[in-house]
Amino acid sequence: MEALLSLLIGVMTACGVYMLLRGRTFPVVLGLTLLSYAVNVFLFAMGRLTIGRPPVIDEAVSQYADPLPQALVLTAIVISFGMTAFVIVLALKARAELGNDHVDGERE
Predict the structure, then answer these.
(1) How far apart are CA 62 and CA 40, in angstroms?
(2) One digit per residue, pLDDT tens: the chain, 108 residues?
(3) How many CA within 13 A on the CB side of residue 39?
(4) Are the C-beta atoms of 91 and 22 separated by less than 8 Å?
């Protein structure tokens, strides 16, 4: 299972980097989204999530879940949503100004 999860994270990261290097803005936005998904899965995998255990320390429970990975992923989701919205608005503004969606701003 660990090898499959590692492979999934690696494939998402590689596809995200590949799409970031494209010449159009839409694949760049998709690449950023894939990279953020890969980071979220990585944080969950490193946090060793447990099911059925409370995230808060209680005297009645001997084992509990670590709430830090969940908080980090929630924060990463909010940041990636804001970053994606900013990049989309930036791409729309560049398209309106230049008349195309090339990343480097060349005119056709």
Answers:
(1) 28
(2) 889 999 999 999 999 999 999 988 899 999 999 999 999 999 888 887 777 777 777 777 778 788 888 888 999 999 999 999 999 999 899 888 888 888 776 665
(3) 16
(4) no
d(CA 103, CA 107): 11
The single residue listed with the structure tokens 């995998």 is: 45
Taking a C-beta distance cutoff of 8 angstroms, is the pair 105, 98 a contact? Answer: yes
Q: Where are the alpha helices (DSSP H) in 21-107?
A: 25-46, 68-98
Distances (CA, A) of 11 to 20, 24, 66, 69, 78: 14, 21, 27, 22, 23
CA gap 61, 31 in Å, rounded: 42
Q: What's the pTM value of the predicted model, to 2 decimals? A: 0.79
